[in-house]
Amino acid sequence: MKKILVTGGAGYIGSHTIVDLIQNNYQVISVDSYLNSSEDVFEGIAKITGVSVKNIPIDLAATESLNFLKEQVGKVDGVIHFAALKSVEESVLKPLSYYQNNLGSLLHILKYIEEMAIPHFIFSSSCTVYGEATELPVTEDTVFSPATSPYGRTKQISEYMIQDFYQNSNWDLKAISLRYFNPAGAHPSHLIGESPANPAQNLVPVITETAIGKRKSMTVYGTDYPTRDGSCIRDYVHVSDLARAHTLALHKLESTKNTRPVDFFNLGMGQGVTVLEAIQAFEKVNKLKLNYILGPRRLGDLPAVYADNSKAIALLGWKPIYNIEHIMKDAWEWEKLSTK
Ligand code: NAD
Ligand code: WQD
């Protein structure tokens, strides 16, 4: 059984990926400081998989983490690195915290990989690396425009750090960077989902929090964009489809076919959904009326972003199966269960 270190394993995407890894016969060890999560998620993982995952609660940005990793985790077959801070807005207010946490953690993980000669690495990147994308749909070859936030810049710099390290490494080490578009939804069992310690800002949790009454109403940010209904277009991808892609990326790294030291894959559905369409999907599938108002644009939002996902489909064998209605159904069921 191959052993995989998952950093940020208590978080939203990390926890769903752990489930998929276990269901595909990997042994998992997690490192998560609970900076934006809690240990409760491991109960949900155990209920779904029957496996109790060990988590080591260390801060990966701290210098001591390298020794902790070597001593407490030791040699593993691969690392999937989710641990990072992810709020665009907070990163503008606290840029140094973002550079310290996101780049410091990555630096220690790469040193650990180097010192322990760990063959396979998967990095959580983001569509934010493309900045104000110059073409749609966005392909992996779309050139990076300047990042629109310090958070976005940490992801761009992370990818450069990874390329510099892997292109000059003398060992047979390989990496894949997965660029997520808009992850959303919850595991179809509704035993795990998104439960950030920090307030939600993304559209889908804002919708479910409004529907359950945690928020009185929500605002559609902008209805005067040059899109089919005036609201912004994004590419929402179900978190379980996203999780599956990590297992497939590991398989790719393990196969002899992967010759490049670093490769990059867009993970989106390849289809744009407007904010108003997303709200309509929520209302339709859950038979609810959402209390929302049409408001002004949010600073920094782009009119439309969606992925060309053909590379992940062709080379990873990825077949996303959930649409926006599944996302809205699972997100709502999770909100109801986790709010009790
Ligand atoms: P999350 O906040 O739910 O999970 C991240 C986890 O990492 C949290 O449990 C947090 O406690 C942990 N963590 C953060 N810093 C740490 C540190 N220094 N040491 C140890 N643990 C630490 O976020 P998520 O949505 O699961 O995102 C996972 C990754 O995917 C992140 O790298 C994020 O930037 C990236 N990403 C997320 C999205 C999204 O919209 N959710 C989109 C694109 C990329
Ligand atoms: C989606 C759409 C909003 C809330 C962010 C990061 C990106 C990546 C994914 C990490 C936009 C609209 C939202 C609300 C609204 N994360 N909206 N009312 O901004 O596309 O991407 O998360 O890497 O880097 O920037 O996602 O969910 O915040 O917004 O109308 O209350 O929903 O304007 O059009 P975004 P989002």
Quick synopsis:
This protein has 340 residues and is of the alpha/beta class. It has eleven helices and 13 strands. Helix 1 (12-23) links the parallel strand 1 (3-7) and strand 2 (27-31).
Radius of gyration of CA atoms, rounded to a whole number: 19 Å
What is the 3D shape? globular
Tell me, rounded to a whole number, the average pLDDT: 95
Largest sheet: 7 strands, parallel
Widest sheet: strand ordering: 3-2-1-4-5-6-11
H/E series, N to C?
Answer: EHEHEHEHHEHEEHEEEHEEHEHH
Broad structural category? alpha/beta
Name the beta content range. 15-25%
Low-confidence stretches: none
The distinct ligands, each listed once, are:
nicotinamide-adenine-dinucleotide, UDP-4-deoxy-4-formamido-beta-L-arabinopyranose
* Range of helix content: 40-55%
Q: How many DSSP helices?
A: 11
The count of strands amounts to 13
Distance between the termini: 37 Å
